[in-house]
């Protein structure tokens, strides 16, 4: 006899998890963050020293040293945010107004801000619907005679296939910037993210694998780019003692010592944080693979994921339901999944880009003679539209326990069983 499926919470059954009594751990507070005595001790040291600026202090410098060691790069520069890191990386390239930089349709606005803030034009490439990562097979078609760089985004903690990206960049003489904001500790083919592109960036914003609330990091093995990045982030003041005068427009993106203290403590915890995230995320992925109708996240065989988010898709035919129906049932069960990352559309569909509004009422830097009026239409990115609509996403963190994973997989199995049996 066919076993009846359990009554869904959506239909008045008991929810899988009472989230009032047992909330999920979240990156918004201590339940999903690893802060403690280590941070307090270093912060206290900074306060007692009386030096809060990186110039004269030791904490930011020590953080740069230890983060560089963790990643395995020559040069590391601490800045105030992931956006500042990307702006600094783009600034270090010293490109021309109207030059084009290729990036992906699914990312945070920070990636795009870095391009426009230097008056370059973002050109978008559609994604692979399975991973929501930039589809590397579509990069070459986006290259023009004004293309100078590619910013790849290792979305949700999974690296983009970097062999293909570097091959294309070599053939066309382009710079590559890795946006590793979401992927501290990720690897491509055994190589740490942040060591493959020419100049690469991380974020320390509240939700990332390690955090200072806000903060960012630029890394590179290129001495020349490292020097220019350091000048750019510090108003182009030359601190080497040679005083060559202010040579270019720079920013003030200096990290302060208080932030540096937390960044240093967090860096020392990063290997353990990654281990905890990987343990629970991979446990859940194995459980998802056993639920008929659920398609676990596709992870490329060369990719080492660092699980900023965990995603899956469903087999609509087998389950006989829509993404919306399945999501509604999951939410009623108390499961923390959502669809639609960063607005749920290709990022270029936002009004600022679609209507070419960066500054005032003009269309600079797109308008000729500086640039060209690139059309940013959502319908030009069908894979992005599909993936944004049909990918279930949960924010992952090191607070998730095996018991949480058991609840998640039980709820998913319950909802899938209901739809299979219907
Ligand atoms: C892929 C990506 N790029 C850039 C950023 C910008 O980082 P931040 O918020 O630290 O400025 C973020 C973070 O939100 C991000 O996820």
The percentage of residues in β strands lies in: 5-15%
Strands in their spatial order, largest beta sheet: 3-2-4-5
Approximate helicity band: 25-40%
CATH architecture of the domain at 37-267: 3-Layer(aba) Sandwich
Biggest beta sheet summary? 4 strands, parallel
Spans with pLDDT under 50 lasting ≥5 residues? Answer: none
User: What's the CATH C level of the domain at 37-267?
Assistant: Alpha Beta
Name given to the CATH homologous superfamily of the domain at 37-267? Type I PLP-dependent aspartate aminotransferase-like (Major domain)
Distance between the termini: 15 Å
Give me the secondary-structure category.
alpha/beta
Number of β-strand runs = 13
How many helix segments? Answer: 12
Cα radius of gyration in angstroms: 23 Å
Q: Fill in the CATH topology of the domain at 37-267.
A: Aspartate Aminotransferase, domain 2
Q: What bound compounds does this protein have?
A: pyridoxal-5'-phosphate
Shape: globular
Order of helices and strands, N to C? HHEHEHEEHEEEEEHHEEEHHHHEH
Mean pLDDT: 97
